[in-house]
Amino acid sequence: MKERSLKKQHPFAMLSKLTGSALLLLLPVLQQLLYKPQNAIEIIGSMGISALYAIGIITGAFIFYNTCRYKRVANGIYLERGVLIKRKFTVPFENVSTITVERSIFAAIFGAARISIDTPAGFSKKRDISLYMSRSKVKFITVKILDSLKTSYLYMAGNFRMVLMSALWSNPMTGLLLLAPLVQKTGNILGKEFNSIVIQSVDFRTNLISVGITPAAATIANILVLGWAVAMLFQFFRYARFSSRRIGDYIAITRGIGNKNERYTKIHEVSALTISRTLSMAMLKLRSAGIFAVGSGKDKGDKSLIAIAANDRELDSAIKGIVGFDTHYKRRLRPEKSRFSSYIMVPLIAMAAVFAVVSLLIFVPFLDDLYFTALLISLAPLAWWIAFRVYAFYNSCIGYNNTCAMFCGYRRLSLVEYVIPYQHIQFVEIRQNLFQQHSGFCNVRVHLYYEKRAIHTVKHLRLADAEEIVKQIEKRII
Amino acid sequence: MEKQKISKNSILVWRIRATLILFASAFVLGALFVFFPIISSILASLLIIAYILILTIYCPKLYKYTSFCLVGNDLTIEQGFFVRRKCTLNPERIQYIITLSGPIQRSLGVCSLSFMTAGSTQTLQNITPEDALKIKTALDLSKKEVRSERTKS
Question: Do A92 and B117 touch (CB under 8 A)?
């Protein structure tokens, strides 16, 4: 093969580095604030120092850009980087597990895109190779990777699903959505009634205190709705135009408006399939499915979804067509009915504590009118939490079939089911806390082959039964 | 392949690193001296003793106990003075190899190799670039051998 020369990244890499060190530009601003130059010479001197800072940062970015070079070699990608400590390495194509292409709005303006390559040896937060290239070159690479491979399955989520998913993404947000207008409405009604009775006969302070709920509730409700709307918009733009495909041995996930993200994961690198649902999603009989693979956990909050807010039929079809894992239980173990109290214990205690603390407001002069509002705001999310835990109790389980082991348990306010092929299970651990040692129950934790050494726990299972089912799973791992 | 020693210059690299750390510590202790003269004097004396011990005993001993060899298809690295470690790397488990060289290493004609595996990263410090190339080529060859044997079987 012809020896290729080393290439530099797209110049946008320099700009991206500059934005990374933008905080350093606060130093001259702080200097200006503290120093307060009095005359022309001092102003020029101080501006000169600021200019030196800026030149330093720009030079740093330029050196970084100049020292990072890459080339394609016969078996992989060769990369050189580092100013003081120089690093040179070749990542073989055969070891690449995930390729991510990101096109942000700013990068798109300059015709650039970022391509990141991950191998199982990568660090938990840092990508093995991350390069800015021209969009045409990135497109050429992705076409080359998927050369002559045919799409065997395509899942596309409609815009309605996107909006729904954005709205239901997290339970607290949904709770706020339900709670905020209710609180606002209550406040408005009470305020109007009060205004019609008292009119303008009392001063502003008395009005505020007498109304009690109105200003506080309205303000809180508006803040909550605004926060929820922003979060929803963020989620929507992040996952809009979502599609997942099976192309040959790759799973391709495309999503996003503005910041477009494409991810190509080798099918045999998929460590686990996750099927998650929040309480609100469960009410609508919807579930989301995602994959765990090396490289997919490096973007904060990214779930590598393959199906979004899908009903049972769509989800089964997507799983079968894209990942091909068998998700049907051959045998399963659920927590015993006597452990129901363990599932709702923590939220119940929290509710009692909040009730006790909020009740103290009755005894505080001028604040006793806020009692009802405070109670409503603080207890509603806790009631949601309890409802979720009840749902989690009835759905948590461990199970297995011929090819995969399944671990279904709650994580925060989502019920997550992990479907893990036996070859990707590192080990299964049985844990007992002090109380469980006496009661003969345990938690079962599974460890995965994944950069974060991901774990998932199913709680409050009978020890003897758990040991038996874990033994069955371990037999299949070996 | 027999046990091979790392480059002799590695002793000098470690000594220079120790000297640089000594300078940095002296700078901090100098600032501390203004507020806590007695404590910083004690720390400075301890630091000088440690520095002399590192230069005269630790660096040569570390060199003595650091070696590498290719046994069959695997690479074995032995290193450490207080805690001696021996690890054997299977070429098939190595995802990729990083060649590292800092300014001191570059000026003394040595480099380090980091072997990236899915489990952890193992580093072989201060070897000559020729040895680095030899190791990389040998590992590449043994990887190919293992694969061809597997395809035959």
Answer: no
Using a CB–CB cutoff of 8 Å, tell me whether B147 touches chain A. no
- Asked if A80 and A100 count as a contact pair (C-beta separation under 8 A), the reply is no
Contact list, A128 vs chain B (CB under 8 Å):
96, 116
- Of chain A, the end-to-end C-alpha distance in Å amounts to 42
Question: Is the CB of residue A300 less than 8 Å away from at least one CB of chain B?
Answer: no
* Whether the predicted pLDDT of B68 surpasses 60: yes
| C-beta of residue A310 within 8 angstroms of C-beta of residue A157 | yes
A85, A87, A121: residue with CB nearest B95: A121
User: Would you put residue A212 in left (φ > 0), alpha (ψ -120 to 50) or beta?
Assistant: left
Most A CBs within 10 Å, among B116, B117, B121, B133, to test the A interface: B116
pLDDT of residue A420: 93
Nearest to A89 among B98, B102, B117 (CB): B98
Query: For A156-169, what is each residue's pLDDT tens digit?
Result: 988 888 888 877 76
Mean pLDDT of A61-77: 90
What pLDDT score does A469 carry? 94
The model's pTM: 0.80
Name residues whose C-beta falls within 8 Å of residue B54's C-beta, 6 or more positions apart in sequence.
B14, B15, B18
User: What is the C-alpha separation between B117 and B113, in angstroms, rounded?
Assistant: 13
Q: What share of chain A is helix, strand, coil (3-state, %, to 5)?
A: 50, 25, 20
Strand segments, DSSP code E, in chain B are: 4-5, 67-71, 74-79, 85-89, 94-101, 111-117, 121-127
Does the pLDDT at position A415 exceed 50? yes
Query: For residue A198, is pLDDT > 70?
Result: no
**What token pair was written down for A43?**
């102003």
Determine how many CB atoms are found less than 10 A away from the CB of residue A309.
26
**Confidence grade of residue B78 (pLDDT, cut at 50, 70, 90):** very high
Would residue A323 be called left, alpha or beta, if left means φ above 0 and alpha means ψ between -120 and 50 degrees?
A: alpha
pLDDT at A112 (0 to 100): 93
Distance from CA of B113 to the nearest CA of A (A): 10
Distance in Å, alpha carbon of B25 to nearest chain A alpha carbon: 21
